[in-house]
Amino acid sequence: MCVTCGCSDDGETKIINLEIDEAEHHHTHTLPDGTVITHSHSNDTHIEASQIHAKIHNTTISLEQDILAKNNLLAAQNRGWFKGRNILALNLMSSPGAGKTTLLTRTINDLKHQLSISVIEGDQETANDAKKIKETGSKVIQINTGTGCHLDASMIDRGLQQLNPPLNSVVMIENVGNLVCPALFDLGEQAKVVILSVTEGEDKPIKYPHMFRASNIMILTKIDLLPYVDFDVQKCIEYAKQVNPKIQIFQISVTTSTGLESWYAWIIAKLTSLSILLP
After folding, report:
1. 159-194 pLDDT tens trace
2. Of residues 149, 163, 153, the one with CA closest to residue 186
3. CA–CA separation, 135 vs 36, rounded Å?
């Protein structure tokens, strides 16, 4: 169990590479007695696999170290990895249904002739969103966290090993839908981007201040729905600035394309600045 927020530990995390047959994947484990076991997960081996996992993970260990300190060390390593390859890594966070995947697929389709964009997709279960992203032609790795409520730096490290994004590119990390725990975990990204839909309520920045305080960018999505919902844009912006005076805000509609050019220009400028900063 994660001692920071109470969700499950990394033992339940699965990384799915859609380029490999999803029906079967293999794992190697070392048991406490030194025995090495390699087994596969497929539709007809789940019982055997679960028995092996039970044998491996049946010991509870009390951790007295700062779990965030360990995460931050790994995040620093990820940050160095990104920097050495001139990769812009963005951590996209929101509550479920705010429109992260819709915005992400539109961004990839509109920019894929200008930029190379790869994706690490985080969800508790399924590869549904990763399949949508794959349809854009973008490289994507799915991370399923099980009962976990956020991605952490270790998961990103493992995902990057399979994703292998090219130099001078963008990696979009779509975090698990949650406005609480993802704000606590540094992944090594250059910027945190919180996405808020006008269907959610303008008081989200003061109800979830840690998320908006940690974020560099707030994207207000689905603004084409403003005539049909009770949402005060100016009040929302005031709340966000109250929590984080430095936060940069984009108002966007994927349906009407409003505001997308400003968002794209920011991404391109951010990636360009990394190139300028290289020794």
Report:
1. 999 999 999 999 999 999 999 999 999 999 999 999
2. 153
3. 38
> Which stretches of 54-213 are assigned E, i.e. beta strand?
88-94, 117-123, 140-144, 170-174, 191-197
Q: Which of 95, 81, 90, 80 is nearest to 173 (CA)?
A: 90
**The tokens of 158 are what?**
């493992």
| Range 75-97 average pLDDT | 97
For residue 279, the model assigns a pLDDT of 45
Cα–Cα distance, 108 to 135 (Å, whole number): 10
Q: Is the separation of the CB atoms in 5 and 133 below 8 Å?
A: no
124: which DSSP letter? S
Residues 6+ away with beta carbon under 8 Å from 57 = 11
**Half-sphere exposure (Cβ direction) of 231: Cα atoms closer than 13 Å:** 21
Q: What is the pLDDT of residue 153?
A: 96
Neighbouring C-beta atoms of residue 3, cutoff 10 Å? 13
Query: Following DSSP, what letter does each residue of 49-96 receive, concatenated?
Result: HHHHHHHHS-------S-HHHHHHHHHHHHHHHHHHTT-EEEEEEEST
Q: Is 257 left (phi over 0), alpha (psi -120 to 50) or beta?
A: left
Segment 94-109, tens digit of pLDDT: 999 999 999 999 999 9
Pick the closest to residue 267 from 170, 181, 133 (CA basis). 170
Q: What is the CA radius of gyration of the chain?
A: 20
Helices 67-84 and 153-163 sit at what angle, rounded to 10 degrees? 30
